[in-house]
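Hello support,

Our group uses your service weekly, and this is the first time we've seen a run hang past the timeout. The protein is Peptide deformylase. I'm not sure whether the cause is the sequence or the server load. Input pasted verbatim:
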Amino acid sequence: MAMREIRTIPDPVLRTPCAEITEIDDRVRALVEDLLQTVDDEGRAGLAANQIGVSLRAFSWNIDDEIGYVLNPRIVELSEDEYQDGEEGCLSVPGLWYPTTRAWYARVEGIDLDRKKVVVEGTELMARCLQHETDHLDGMLYLDRLERSVRKKAMRALRDQL
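Update from on-call engineer: The timeout came from a worker crash unrelated to the input. Re-ran successfully.
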């Protein structure tokens, strides 16, 4: 297991949709161990594989003292009439936090290392995490979901950082 370096914008791996995991081998097992160890640090809620440079569909989470992972996650349900607005940040976009609208509830389905079905669901912070990490695996950043005026401000701040 290893604590992995977090890739930051403008690294192209963050904008590349991740591939499905088709074979559970030692490489995937090591990836899961690295995701779990790297997310287990203060202030970290979630971590997608591409954030540590691996373009495979996997992420880990660290919410309310629960750490877990899911392979090949897909969002299968979002609350359609309940939303949450709150400041959102990202390990790959350090130091920038902006109000981001997300569904209040989210449900993700995937598999574990034994190919058993995994269902992860939650509200508030867990729902935000599930949506945020799944976006990463699709090559999206939370900045892409910002309202136009806020996104413009965020991109200006990002350019000033780089």
